[in-house]
Amino acid sequence: MPRIKVKRTSTVTDMTAMCDVAALLLTFFILTATARQPEPLAVSTPSSTYEFKVPVENNAILTIGQGKVFFEVAGPKVREKTLQLMGEQYGVKFTPEETVRFSGIGSFGVPIQSLKQLIAMNAGDRMKPGVQPGIPSDSTDNQLNAWVLNARKATKEINNQDMRISIKGDAKEEYPVVKKIIDVLQKQSVNKFLLVTNSEAKKKK
Q: Name one GO molecular function term (predicted).
């Protein structure tokens, strides 16, 4: 009895659905990604084997390097409120346009009296050497203390959360400069803060 030959057909996989899913995922990640703000003060942080991600929300970063201190607080709404409180404290009036522009600025380091000029600059000019001398933090004009205090108030009011603080210091920075910043925090009863370091893989034994 002759064998019945089964007609072979080519196998075709419809990839349309998979391509649609890939396109949707790509769109999602693009829309939800947060662009990293350029930093006006580049620092080389010390190495550490301890891994802990710096909080994205309800957090402020104090960057210390070259004897200067820079400040950054998370969230555009919190930045706007912080600027409003600082303006009221120092008698500096910021326009609505300046407030919106400031809400998009990350780390900065100028006295409050020079902040209007910094806000008016484009991002490239803000990053130029010598433009930002750091936030005053000495005993005669401790503006850093005011920035931290007002940012804490703004975070509590906007997000109903306590603001956490991270210190990002250069590995070669002198200890007295770092201690002065810690003293500012302790005067506000802030005794817990994160130290930003470079993650270093543990060596295999």
A: transmembrane transporter activity
